[in-house]
Amino acid sequence: VAPTTSSPTMAYDFFRLLEFEDFQRNMESLVFLSYTASGTVYPSKMYTLSGMINSLKDMALIGISYDDPRDGSQKFFKFYLGYEEKNLAYGQANLAAFLANAMVESIAKDTCDELNSDDMAGRFAVSNSCGQNGRSYQDEFCIIAEEAKMSCPVDVNMETTAVSNEGRGPPPFTCRPKTGDNDYAGFWDERSKTTEFSAYSNAMGRLDIEGCCWWGRGVLSTRGTCNIGKLNYYLGKSAYERRGESRFPGIDFCSDPAAICTEALTSEELRWITGMFEWTERIQSYSRDGWTYLNQLKDFVDDGMKDDSFISTVNSIVTRGCHGSTCSSIQTTNDETRKNNFKAIIRIFRIFSNSPTKQPVNTSHTGVDSSPFPSATLKSSDNQPFQNGAFLSQTAQTNPPAQRGSPADIIPLKDNSSVTLSICYLQIILKMGIISLLFEL
User: Fold this and answer.
1) Rounded CA gap, 362 and 366, in Å?
2) 114 vs 147, 170, 427, CA distance in Å?
3) CB-based burial, 182-220: b 16+ in 10 Å, e otherwise
4) Least confident window among 29-33, 247-251, 271-275, 390-394
5) Which of 80, 139, 240, 425 sits at a 20 to 30 Å CA gap from 189?
6) If you average pLDDT over every residue of the chain, what do you get?
7) Do 357 and 22 form a contact (C-beta atoms < 8 A)?
8) What pLDDT shows up at residue 164?
């Protein structure tokens, strides 16, 4: 069935706000900042506002075409901007939720590869490359029947090393085959700043790093054999071999997951597109046990964006794969920081949506595809974590990781603030949140 036509004016209106100079200046001073391990702030090198806008145009206006595995019809993964309802606030809230999580996952640390952050008394297991915060990335395969074929196979002979960690403590993640029964990955000691190759496990009991090449990469830190497999199935070499077209036809994300970052050394687009695709495929399409992301997003906006329940639940889906309080033994990481990021971005949108006093910068909107965002969702009756992305092994469910420290207290933003709230105040709030995140690392 041919897609219906949506209004190109609607798309232009959304991006017009993003092109106001004052809006861009404030977004750059709040969202696109990175911090060294000591807390020194600098503009992110890996992630820029212009790179985000260009990739968003690509993912929202053109999207990723695919053949629906359920019925073979052509559909599109598109980043939701409120097309169907002609409601800019819906799109702004969706973008704010995405950026709030991206800031924690990658932007604040200015890295493409996931960093080693899960420690016990200053000891960081080298085998954290196999999974952090109670996860086992290589066991997170796709469990929905029609998606099982999308998972990447685990190659125990694969060897790769993360390309960046910006001098942050533990060495970059790596994976390689074992050379023997006593080949222990060991741990990095924060006090001595050295690695000791002893029988020291991560929270899931892994002593080695064989087959552990599926750590997070890109702006949303896409992890696991299912989520990375979907990149290949819909965006990579697999898509090209099946359909004769692909966004990245020369990249086999399954045989070379590191390509997300190695190729991205010269391509900011790849870092953004992979994350935006995961957001559209896994978060926007989330629908389980009566909780549907797009419905909840619209209700949140329509109710005046008054509380934290929406963004807190979204943070749970991003980090745990499910929305229920008891759906997983995994803890939501850095929830307070993610929530405060979201509030600050929402308020910037509100301020400039109510008072756009500057002219937009000179940018073009070429290549616009006016087909709408698809409404299909993935549904299931159970509430297992990573249902739309990946399954957590039974070990991960029954043996939760040791409890870590809680995020440092952050001054909350008041929900009834007027649109004239000082940008300086927002900046202070957000920086305090990111600094607390750095202390946790």
Assistant:
1) 13
2) 25, 12, 25
3) eebbbbbbeeeeeeeeeebbbbbebbbbbbbbbbbbbbb
4) 390-394
5) 139
6) 81
7) yes
8) 74
